[in-house]
Each structure stands twice: as C-alpha cells, then as structure tokens.
Write a structure and sequence with these properties.
CATH superfamily of the largest domain: P-loop containing nucleotide triphosphate hydrolases
Radius of gyration: 29 Å
Number of strands: 11
Strand content: 5-15%
CATH topology of the largest domain: Rossmann fold
CATH architecture of the largest domain: 3-Layer(aba) Sandwich
C-alpha cells in the first residue's frame, strides 16, 4: 500500500476537487490509518476496524469524486453501488453481498490485464512461432502466394522454398517482422462466442447459493470454434491474446485479488439516505430497514461466498454518501450508525466555487471543451467575464430549480456551445472568443423563464 501522508493525499485531491477541505482531511486520515494498521504487531492488526465514513451533502458537490480519486491514488480496488438498488432478501432485487462479488470480479480482471501486459513480449514470440507454423506447412515449403502479395514478396517466397527448412522459416520470420506479409490471409480457428447460454432466473438470484451455474454447465457443451480467414496482423493479435491468457497463472491472480480486496478494498455506498426510514411500523420503511439489516453484517465484518472462494469484509473501507434532505443519519438503525463513526458535511457550491471548477482542476470543464474543439481545428477561448457569467447563471438556476451542484455547469456549457459543437467540422480553422455578452444572449431566455430552465437546464 502506498504510504501517502494525509497532507499529500489532500494535495493530490486538490488537483481535481475544489473545496470540501473537511471531507478531504477525513478520507486522508482514514487512508493513512489503513497503512498504520499494516505496521502494528500482527496480533493487534486484526482488532483494528476501519473507520468508515458518511459524506453528507447535496448532489454534485464531489462526494463520489473524492472516493474515486482516493482509490486511484492508492491503486485500491474500488466499486460504487447505489444502496437504493438493494432490497430486503425475499423482495425482488439484488442481495447486498453482490457488491463484494462485483468488487472481487473487477479486481481479478484488473490484475489479469496487468499480468497479461507483463507477459506481452513472451506471448508475442509464441504467437510468432504459431504464425510461422501456419505459413510454413510440414513440407517445409511456404504456402502458395496469394494475389495480395507484392511481386517482391512472391519472388522471396519462391526463392526461399528451394532452400533448407530452417532457413525458409527464418526468411519468413524476417518478412513477417518487416510487415511484408501483412496483406496475406491465413485460416485461423477462433473461439465461437455465440454458443448456447444458460440463464437461471430466481427472485433473489442464484448468487446466494454460492454456485455459478454457467461455470458448472460450461463443461457440458464442447468449446465451439470456427474457422476464419483473417489477415496476418489481425491473426497475430488473436494468437498473442490466446498465448497471454495461457501464460497467466489465474490461481495466483485470484489469490492476490482476494487479498487486495480484503486489505485495501473501498466500497462507495451512494444514496444511503434512500434506505433510511422514519421508524414507522409499516409501509416501504419496513423494507428499507430490512436492507439496512442486510447491510449490517457486511459493513460489520463477515465472510462472503464467491465463486473464487470466501472473502472477508472486516477491513474493507466503506464510504457512504447521501443528500439527507428529508432524513438524518440518526434515522439509520443504531447498529449501522455505529459502523460509520466519521460524519462529514460537504459544503454546497456557489459562484466562487463554480469559477474555480471551470478553470483550476487538471480536468477542468473549459479545458475539456477547448481540447474537444481543437480536434476540429477550432481554437476556442473564454474571457474572464464570460466564465464569471457562466458561474453566476449556474448558481441562479440551482437556487431556483433543483440544486444539482457542479453538474449544472455541464448542462449550461452544452447549451452555450451547442451551435459551435454542431458546426465545428464545417468551420474554417479559426479562433473563437466567448464573451460575457454572448453567454448572456445565448442563455438569457432560458434563464429568465423558470419553467423553461427547469426542463432545459
């Protein structure tokens, strides 16, 4: 685990997220505590529980972005789920354990991709040998030249056919590496992905049984292959992928993934306020409380059965978030509240923050649009007054309609640049400067008409 200091974590988050200093400090401390836990004596290590966090604030203020950037900083397994999609076991919906299974699946795929990248050179060499076997039959003579080959290639093939087998192979290898066989077609057997599919339907899904029926029944049907005629470069890619897959030790990958999830996993539970009830004894609140009680053992620490083996959730960090407009964190059941000891309230965003969001971060919204239009040869610039006006309009619309935070800037920018984005391919190479007057004239009617802005912005 990367031992970043809390101040370094905050510094990195500042590059992408404006404001929200309290939230950044809290997650930075939680992250450092995970590293500290790895340094304590082993007998005490398992006793130290992660300090789970609830981020409280309206939508669009940076809650999800903080958690996502945190996982990238530390290369931690990360999964975002909406708490509202879970339902109490027995009702239609997904069971809560599926979020741990999804996190493990994502981690295995990531580690597998890295392992395949690490053996890329070996895989390519093996693919090259297989390609030479396809091009060079057992007789030792190259296959008959196709019309796609150039006269030079045809001459080299005919010449090499009269030489020793090993020499012929090396000549073909040299031609392959120089790209002289790129127009040649070869017959290749590839896996047929359109085979029979078995789906199991149940009201709570087969996940609970810990059985993967597709894997179990996969051996019933023979692995279908089909012969395709492909050009040499495409065939090399297919063969290299097959070789890379064979070179990766999947047992080792799964073992590493389970350890990584257990020790460094982060699960972001969005919209947790949607499953908070008001202590009523009937109606939908009963189901919401059921979801909370199903979540409790996962957050508290339990063992989840997956098709790769058991996964312990004792040290997975849970970051929950919610707007909490109509309910309070205290409306969650007491046991679940106790598992989220850190509560952080995020600040609503105003004009000042919007100006900074548009211009300061590494992935600032203005920089994105400037880069997009530059691909068409159109150079767009924004005057300072124009940026201020965009921020002011975003704040006004948020105050009068739904407050969706920084996401309002995206809707306004799309509306403002709609014509330029549409016409850019046909415009001559030029520089376009967006002024304050242009912003106001473009958005005036929509901004002033509250009903219209409610639907358009």
């Amino acid at each position: 685990m990367n031992p970043l200091k809390p101040s370094e974590v905050v510094e990195e988050l500042d590059k992408y997220i404006i404001g929200q200093d309290n939230a950044k400090r809290s997650v930075a401390i939680a992250l450092r505590n995970r590293w500290r836990r790895q340094q304590v004596p082993e007998e005490l290590r398992d006793e130290i529980a992660p300090k789970n966090i609830i981020l409280i604030g309206p939508t669009g203020v940076g809650k999800t972005e903080i958690a996502r950037r945190l996982s990238r900083l530390t290369d931690s397994p990360f999964s975002k789920v909406e708490a509202s999609k879970f339902t109490e076991v027995g009702y239609v919906g997904r069971d809560v354990e599926s979020m741990v299974r999804d996190l493990l699946e994502l981690t295995i795929n990531t580690l597998k991709s890295r392992e395949q990248e690490a053996v890329k050179d070996k895989a390519w060499q093996a693919a090259e040998e297989r390609m030479l076997d396809l091009l060079l039959p057992k007789s030792g003579k190259p296959v008959n030249p196709r019309t796609e080959d150039t006269k030079e290639v045809q001459f080299e093939l005919v010449t090499s056919a009269n030489e020793e087998s090993s020499s012929t192979r090396e000549k073909l290898r040299d031609m392959l590496r120089r790209g002289k066989l790129n127009n040649r077609f070869v017959d290749l057997d590839v896996a047929d992905r359109s085979g029979p599919m078995v789906e199991i339907f149940s009201n709570v899904g087969m996940e609970e049984m810990g059985i993967n029926f597709k894997d179990m029944l996969g051996g019933v049907f023979p692995k279908a292959t089909k012969r395709r005629k492909v050009k040499v470069p495409e065939a090399m890619e297919i063969l290299a992928q097959e070789e890379a897959h064979g070179l990766v030790d999947m047992d080792k990958v799964v073992k590493q993934a389970i350890k990584k999830v257990e020790q460094a996993g982060i699960i972001f539970l969005d919209e947790i306020d949607k499953i908070a009830g008001r202590n009523s004894a009937q109606g939908p609140d009963v189901s919401r409380e059921g979801v909370q009680r199903d979540l409790l053992p996962i957050v508290e620490g339990s063992t989840v059965t997956t098709k790769y083996g058991p996964v312990k959730t004792d040290h997975i960090l849970f970051v929950a978030s919610g707007a909490f407009h109509t309910v309070k964190p205290s409306d969650l059941i007491p046991e679940l509240q106790g598992r989220f000891p850190i509560r952080v309230e995020l600040d609503a965003l105003g004009k000042k923050e919007f100006v900074r969001i548009l211009t300061e971060p590494k992935n600032a919204l203005l920089l994105q649009y400037i880069a997009l239009l530059k691909t068409e040869g159109v150079d767009v610039a924004f005057e300072d007054d124009a940026v201020e006006t965009i921020a002011r309009i975003a704040e006004e619309v948020n105050n009068r309609t739904e407050n969706i935070g920084a996401r309002r800037l995206q809707t306004i920018m799309e509306r403002l640049l709609e014509d330029i984005l549409f016409e850019a391919p046909d415009l001559p190479r030029q520089r376009i400067v967006i002024s304050k007057d242009e912003v106001e004239s473009k958005l005036k009617d929509i901004k002033d008409d509250e009903d219209l802005s409610r639907y358009i912005l």
